[in-house]
Amino acid sequence: GTILGSYAAGPAAAILGFLALTSRNCRAVQTSAGLCCAAIALDRVLPIPHECSSGARVLLPLMRAVKAAFHHRVYPSSEMALRQDRNYLFALTPHGFFPWGPAVFLVELFLQGYLPNLLGASVLGSLPVAGRLLRTFGYRPATASEVRRCLQKPYPRNVTVIIPGGIREMFCVRQDIEISVANTRKGFVELACESGAMLVPGYCFGSTQLYKVAEGWLGKLFEAISRRLKASVTLFHGSFFLLPYAHDLGTALGKPIDTRIVSNAQEAQQLWIQRLREAFEQHKADFGWPNRNLYFDGEDVPPLPQDPLESYTALPSLSKL
């Protein structure tokens, strides 16, 4: 991850420097390129934050605006009444193409006064500038040692969020049903049991509806490439290509699992899956999805609905982008 981030910064700075040198008659381009080069250079040399910064609270008005834009709600709100003397691991699913659902849930935690930890792929923290921003908001690489460290932090950093389904769930996005592969992950449960943390299941309603991604054989090809690179690579589009489509978001929380009581990882994992499904079924109508179904990896998933465009193109798979 560090190597990728470092080598990405070099080409970016080179391109911007070239623009500054060739755009002699455009002062605005020169100034913008110079500022970008300076920002990338500073990002490489300044100390890297190692936990969520209290300075991130300065952006609370922006966080409230993001929450309002997605009309985010937590079901039930009573599950957000957390104890300051316990550590919590919120295991949320699905990832979606981009994890806007977990991101907005982080906003809920910030608004309650917490400085949460967000566990994700190691490559994210090494991205130029963006990696620093993520670390400021509590990002940490999802390694076993980092998870252990996060689950020992005192209040207000005693809350950690993880997305167990990870990259694979980016390729399980469908418009007709919900699919989660988090049931195949056990490491986060074992670490929660080892640390004696409160393990909380959470389902992010709406996360799969914000982008359209490649499906069929093309989606499987990009999934294989992403697994090899340990970074997400696929074809997608949203509103104005990059922005998410307009859709409400919500987080359904299951009853917390006290791993001091349920200390067996296998038992805790089955309980997490059970309570996750219960939370989905109990609150899907409140979110506006009364007829939507959730399938876990290994269950019989219905086939993709017929694409009406297949009658008009010789490349039906590509029409699903």
Task: List the defining traits of the structure above.
321 residues, alpha/beta, two-stranded parallel sheet, globular, disordered N terminus, disordered C terminus
Protein model, in words:
By secondary structure, the chain is of the alpha/beta class. The protein is built from nine helices and twelve strands. The protein has helices spanning 2-22, 27-45, 60-70, 100-111, 130-136, 144-150, 187-195, 216-229, 265-287, and strands spanning 73-75, 88-93, 117-120, 139-141, 159-162, 178-180, 198-205, 212-213, 236-237, 250-253, 257-258, 294-296. The strands form three sheets. Strands 1, 2, 3, 4, 5, 7, 10 and 11 form an eight-stranded mixed beta sheet that branches. A two-stranded parallel sheet has the order 6-12. Strands 8-9 form a two-stranded antiparallel sheet. Helix 5 links the parallel strand 3 (117-120) and strand 4 (139-141). Helix 7 crosses helix 9. The protein is globular and about 65 Å long. It starts with a helix and ends in a 25-residue tail after the last strand.
